[in-house]
Design brief:
Layout lengths: L1 E7 L3 H12 L4 E8 L6 H14 L7 E2 L39 H12 L3 E5 L4 H9 L7 E7 L14 H5 L1 H9 L5 E4 L1 H4 L3 E2 L1 H10 L2 H21 L4 E2 L3 H8 L4 E10 L9 E5 L10 E7 L1 H12 L4 H6 L2
Parallel strand pairs: 1-2, 1-4, 2-3, 4-5, 5-6, 6-11
Antiparallel strand pairs: 7-8, 9-10, 9-11
Helix pairs in contact: 1-9, 1-10, 3-4, 4-6, 8-9
This protein binds beta-D-ribofuranose and calcium ion.
Length: 319
């Protein structure tokens, strides 16, 4: 059983990533959610984290509120891609569940020490909380087993031609995480997440499965799909963060390369991840394993297999 903390800014795909993790009760022990401002401000994303746990009837899992702004910059407003509420404009009622008193950074440091080498961090938002923990505690890095990041890209971006949202939101934090010397860092960036698109057919299947969780996923992805249409003329929507959970359940869902990764923190390419494959740049010391492709079929096998097992075969036949 792998012990994980998901550091998150829910966020449509964040919410789905969390629900997938919760469905894998025998493989993943979700110790907590720590929140970070990103897709929406810190109060909204923290409430959203509580709402998702309530939906899954997992109020026992604690939520810790994290940083409200990037490490060295002001937060850039602009929440619209995930709706005004950060969850696709479904405007669920305020949750009864509240976050803990302790801050996310304090919790991360304390938990890392408690678990000593047996804790996997899964940051699927800007890397501010993780960077603050690194800064505050010199022993934090060595206490972590693996960091599985959704962010960055070897090629391309979604906030500029070269920068992906999570790194672009807090480039200094992302840079620090890659420089910190973690035992194992896995970067699941846009090169891989581009392979896990929720098609209109699979989205409709979520509606027809008709459980509170499947209907929620259907509802929150409406705005996301509309934006993909508006901007890219694509039908459906990308499930970026969900691929990190799928990777935890079956690492072979992605194809990886060894690399040295650094992050640009100024200029035209601000927030861009620079991926030196060590195969081509042997002088560079590896600090990361980078996912460069995902197996779409395997992803949906994992997704439906854990969340809606009765519909796995139907889903796979629709692909
Ligand atoms: C990332 O940005 C956010 O909008 C998503 O939740 C995901 O973490 C994709 O670039
Ligand atoms: Ca996210």
């Amino acid at each position: 059983m792998r012990k994980i903390v998901i550091d998150t800014d829910p966020g449509i795909d964040d919410a789905i990533a969390i629900l997938l993790a919760l469905s894998a009760r025998e493989e993943l022990e979700l110790l907590a959610l720590t929140t970070v401002s990103g897709n929406a401000d810190i109060d909204k994303v923290t409430k959203n984290a509580c709402k998702v746990l309530e939906l899954a009837e997992r109020e026992d899992i604690p939520v810790y509120k994290g940083c409200h702004k990037p490490l060295m910059r002001e937060r850039i407003e602009g929440d619209d891609f995930h709706g005004d509420d950060g969850l696709g404009n479904v405007h669920l009622a305020d949750p009864v569940k509240k976050e803990e008193e302790e801050s996310a950074v304090d919790f991360l440091i304390q938990k890392a020490h408690e678990e000593k080498g047996k804790l996997t961090l899964v940051p699927i938002g800007p890397l501010t909380n993780i960077a603050q923990a690194i800064r505050r505690d010199p022993e934090f890095v060595e206490c972590i087993e693996e960091v599985v990041i959704m962010g960055g890209a070897e090629n391309g971006g979604n906030m500029s031609p070269h920068a992906e949202f999570n790194f672009w939101s807090d480039p200094e934090a992302a840079k620090l995480v890659f420089q910190a010397g973690f035992k194992k860092v896995t970067m699941i960036g846009l090169d891989a997440t581009g392979w896990v698109f929720l098609s209109p057919t699979l989205r409709e299947l979520l509606y027809l499965i008709n459980t509170p969780v499947s209907r929620f996923m259907h509802d929150i992805t409406r705005v996301y799909a509309d934006d993909h249409w508006k901007i890219e003329k694509k039908l459906g929507c990308e499930l970026c963060d969900v691929l990190t959970t799928a990777y935890l359940l079956d690492p072979s869902v992605v194809e990886t390369v060894d690399a040295f990764v650094d992050v640009e923190t100024s200029g035209l390419c601000d927030g861009a991840s620079v991926v030196y494959r060590t195969l081509y740049y042997p002088d560079k010391t590896q600090n990361c394993t980078v996912a460069v492709k995902a197996d779409t079929k395997k992803f949906y096998e994992i997704f439906f297999g854990y969340l809606f097992p009765d519909y796995k075969d139907i889903a796979l036949n629709m692909m």
